[in-house]
Automatic annotation (TrEMBL):
Intracellular or extracellular location(s): Nucleus
Stretches with biased composition (Basic and acidic residues): 65-77, 626-644
Pfam family, one: WHD_E2F_TDP
Family affiliation: Belongs to the E2F/DP family.
Source species taxonomy: Eukaryota, Metazoa, Chordata, Craniata, Vertebrata
Source organism: Psilopogon haemacephalus
Sample GO molecular function, one term: RNA polymerase II cis-regulatory region sequence-specific DNA binding
Annotated spans, Disordered: 1-92, 223-249, 473-493, 547-663, 856-879
Name used for this protein in its record: Transcription factor E2F7
Gene (name only): E2f7
Amino acid sequence: ENILDRSRMAPKTPIKNEPVDLSKQKGCTPERNPMTPVKLIDRPQPDPWTPTANLKMLVSAASPDMRDREKKKELFRPIENSDQSDTPDSLQYDMIEDSMGDEFEKQRPSRKQKSLGLLCQKFLARYPSYPLSTEKTTISLDEVAAVLGVERRRIYDIVNVLESLQLVSRVAKNQYCWHGRHNLSQTLKVLQDVGELQYGELMTFLQHKEQDLEYRFRDQKKETLPDSQDSPLLDFSEPDCTSASANSRKDKSLRIMSQKFVMLFLVSKTKIVTLDIAAKILIEETQDTVDHSKFKSKVRRLYDIANVLTSLGLIKKVHVTEERGRKPAFKWIGPAEFPARTGNFSPSSNPLPGTQRGACANGKQKFSRHASFNFTQPCEGTRRKVNSEPSSPDLERPACVVNSDEHGCKMINLAAVCSQKVEEDNSSARNPSISSPLSHLPVPGDSDFCVTPLPQAVFPVVQTDVPSLSLPNSISGQALHPSTPALNKTENEKPALLPSQPFLCFPSSSVFMWCGSLQENNLKETLPTAGDVGNRSAEAQTAVPAAACQKRSSHQLTAASAPADEEEPASKKQNVEESDVPLSLVVPKKPFESPKAEATPGSVGTSAEHLEDFHPDLASPVAPEATDKECTKPLDSQKQEECSQNKGLGEPSQGEEHISKENGSQPFLPQYLYVQPTAGLSNFNFLFSANQAPGGISLAASPLPSVSVPCVMVPAAALASFPLFCSPAVISPLSSVPDGSFSAASSTNFSVSGLAPATPVLIGTTAVVTPKVSPTPSVDPQQPAQPALHLSPVFARSCAAVKLEPPVCGGHPVTLLKLQQPSSAPLTPKSIRPACHEAFFKTPGSLGDPVCWKKNEGNQTRSASSVQRRLEISSTSAD
DNA sequence: CGATCCCGCCACATT
DNA sequence: AATGTGGCGGGATCG
């Protein structure tokens, strides 16, 4: 509908403003956006511009009926149209169909045409979903409002929600910085973690019990908790800088509400949340009392938020049948589960940047940062962070604190929510593939990659967090980083930094093997998802994919139909978007993606590709990224010095096999190989094994020192839950050796040993990357904290993991935890930081030596290092 | 008639 | 005080 509407809308809406715009545009010519940095998307207002639109325009022009204003616009448009002809397909259809009837509508813009959702789509169309690193796009509220032809107030509605997801951040008065979706997965992860903390316990609890309980709870709810939720869940806001003063009203509402709303989805089993339940949960006070009016008001706001989220392709409207009848509800169709429940907490540390506006007003700094980070691809981002660390400004973002105690109440609600039955809006919606599969993907990588801009800096941390459960986190993080480091080298960034950090640096080309923690099963599931994504990407790039992904096909169709999708991601379609979303998810999985992304704009696709690796089909199709392929193969011959294994790799699929071979026993393991194309960076190749081994990873990771890759192998069991890790552990580059030591764990795929010699590798913990960046630090602290706070579950898990690990790193992990905990306890970011520092320093030695890394024995060292790093980072930043 | 949600008043925040 | 933000809810539309 929206689409159609849009087309229609275009004509009308703008009326007032448009003239202005037009004038501007004219000057510039179609692309005009000159003014706006954004430029990216011309299509922004595609609606009008579609070819069909043009026709309409012409027609209308011909007819006297047309309005004056319209005329103006139209006149201009035609010109523009020519340029933009490419505009979105959807529009076109509409246009065609409508063309005749439109006129009427034009005249009178229906409410729909003015809807916030549509407006949001237009808004999003203006900016690239995955902006290039270099670009930092600045958004001027006034300008956008004028261009879109709406009052500024409406723009606030959109921006506030986007900000809650960190798609944008406020830079200054009237100015926002567009970050795109690079960090989206990270943000979601954080929200999920936080949500779990707050609601999760109950949720899970409830879930088990099930609906019955739910209902009960609902009733109970009233009684139970007063929730103090008031305080922003995630406060992105920076506690520190800005005076607390700001808190007052701003923190609340839309931004926070949006985050909470998203959390409900992420925590909900069904991924479906009804408006009323959400409203009740979100109402600060006790639910019962809630006046009807208050409730109504809340619902209204939720509609506003839902419209934006829908435009983002994160949710869609559905109906749930409950006891009584059907109720409006929304279903989450965005990426789902990242790291997953297993190790959630970490995120909290970094919470989302979003809110923090006020904080220090460092607009400048932020700005710069953003610039640097944002766009760079994830990988770079991480790197930069490192570099940037010194800069420190980031601190602003200090971690967010999450307070989530009120869980109880919420939980109840959640439970209710969860329990809800969904009618399922439609068969299609359900595709498990989308939501669930994705979930599997761990995002660890993403976070790293994504790391985005400062504000987001947090994320990186988050990543770590995930793993936080046990060391694994760090590991995972590290894994990701490798690429970054490499980049750094190339770039010249400071090697020094790198060393400190947890990553591995490989000389330009190197091959990495990853072990996926995911279980086969999971993998499979994930794969599909990935596949989807991949497909999309592939399709976009090449037509190939389709076959492979049946699943998506339905969804894809749209995409397929419009080859251009890639280009237009944001522009319109949810469909596309949806796919996009998943993609993003995917990306996360593969830590490396980011690098690629850098190289290729279509980073998203790339990520998918990686995933695809698993599937032969996908992989090949993906090809589009010739680079990848090239990389892979070349790797064989070339790069992978170490990778004896890799040889086989030539192809990704093969790579898997190899891995498996090595692993031998492990059936699941070999998931895939990821080769990183050199594209942007130095050439890195990655091989992933999908196996679960995650557990191993975690530990292994910690041990950084010994780059020896071997580490990885943690018993999966523990980690299993976290897919992420794998990677970290992974990293071990080539693993020629296997395992010896660790592998014992079973999964061990790699033997890093080989690597060490071959190339200098730096292994960092995940944290590493971020280290310097202030934001991250904060995050780290949090992570630890969370666990502590929270809970047990995680904690326990972590412990378990640790136990498993013992052989390898055992102790270390634990240690880390402890350290973290302290920090966590305080909760407050600040407090945490200090702690971190201390901790950080303790271990430093290990970190510092590059050499150590390579060889290091020590898991311990590694772990410590990672931890330290984190700490450092925080500290540095703080400093 | 209930579900949506546009519109813009106006309070609070920031400059 | 002016201007930026954005809470909030009346009431118009939609279905």
